């Protein structure tokens, strides 16, 4: 992905992850627009009428899984680049993520500064 990232949507039920990611991302790119959702249904509603450069999506959430969220994005014909978020590198999850065209990557939480820099500053 060589497109500049200016707006990122997070869908993750973990408030602490939101705080850590916001702090680290804005330190790297202060003008970045970050929007956080703990509730995946609210995020879906938002994505139906708004665009974003990147969606960071947690796999394990209480209301619905990241996989169910991806299925709903496809049903609603919402096309957005997605990186899956997980606290483990489960080979089954990594394999499953390849079933979705919109999934561009798989990131381990908590996001490390090096990973954020790579995400925000893709090589041209």
Automatic annotation (TrEMBL):
Keywords: Phosphoprotein. The keyword Phosphoprotein applies. SMART domains: REC (SM00448). InterPro entries: Bact_response_regulator, CheY-like_superfamily, Sig_transdc_resp-reg_receiver. The modification 4-aspartylphosphate is found at residue 58. Pfam families: Response_reg. Residues 7-124 form the Response regulatory domain. GO terms for biological process: phosphorelay signal transduction system. The keyword DNA damage does not apply. It comes from the Bacteria. PANTHER family: RESPONSE REGULATORY DOMAIN-CONTAINING PROTEIN, STRESS RESPONSE REGULATOR PROTEIN 1. This is Response regulator receiver domain-containing protein. It comes from Belliella pelovolcani.
